[in-house]
Amino acid sequence: MEASSLQVIDAHVHVWDPAVLDYAWLADAPGLNKPFLPDGLPHRGASTSAAVFVQADCRDDQALKEVDWVTGLRAGWPELAGIVAFAAISRGDAVAADLGQLLERPLVRGVRQLFQDRDELFMLHPATVAGARQVASAGLVFDACIRAPQLEALAEFAGLVPDLQIVLDHMGKPPIARGDQAMWRTGMREVARRPNVVVKISGAGAEADPNRPLAPQASPFVSETLDLFGAGRCMVGSDWPVSLTGQPAYQEWLTIVEQAMVGASDGERKSVLHGTATRVYQLQPPPRQPPTNQEKD
What is the DSSP letter of 234? Predict the structure, then answer.
């Protein structure tokens, strides 16, 4: 199957330049410790019409600078449609001032503070919950980046802030390399019961065994995610460059997602490939493709 016959919004893209901002985590990732800029994105020649930039974990006090730097790249990156910025929601109500500054930047659609290396007490602390409520009041989305053992805590967090639109990044980072779905599936089922949570089908490359083909490892997790959440609550993302680099890997990922949707309706495929991201992040709809000869008849 060719990927993709429909327009795609890549809902999870990173760019960075260590000469511009400080990324402490890159010291432990030598393969990524260099500039990754829009001209290297694998979207060229693909059907991707738009992309959402997600904060790349630079120094916390550089959050606004990151937004302004990424916004400045838009002249050469017309696909950039939205930004998920950093905001320390663990500061509680005090984060409202930070959100106010972010709202002055028109591309900002949501915020993220990484939960993946925090315990449940951090996620469920009253201050974090208060900060999350401030995000909801600001009309912004919250991207939740966690690991599979944290899924049940995220379900509880989502229940505490029912007015907050939450986007679960990377399918909750399942143990793809091990192929063990049991614990992950239990947690995902709990999260799926929270109507204010949608999920990104993304990030599989970072959780898979790089010495084995990706499709057989990732496909069961993609299919299970679609079954649990439904197409209307799923969106596709590349997680470039963390989970994949280069156009062949990007096209392979789109193909994996498309193959998991075999038998889905055209409307369901549109939801996953661009509709959910457009709705959740309040993006401009992707441009309409010219009708095919068959559609003209």
Answer: E
Which tokens go with 180? 């063990």
* 54: helix, strand or coil: strand
Asked if the peptide bond before residue 241 counts as cis, ω within 30 degrees of 0, the response is: yes
Indicate the length of the chain as a whole number: 297
Mean pLDDT by 10 residues, the chain (297 residues): 71 98 96 96 83 98 98 96 98 98 98 95 97 98 98 98 98 96 97 98 96 96 98 97 92 96 96 97 66 40
Distance of CA 290 to the CA centre of its chain: 28
Among 130, 142, 17, residue whose Cα is nearest residue 87 = 142
Burial string for 189-213 (b: 16+ CB within 10 Å, else e) reads ebbbebeebbbbbbbbbebbeeeee
Q: How many angstroms separate the CA atoms of 54 and 86, rounded?
A: 8
Quickly list H helices, the chain: 63-72, 95-103, 120-124, 126-137, 151-160, 182-192, 204-207, 214-229, 247-260, 266-270, 276-280, 293-296
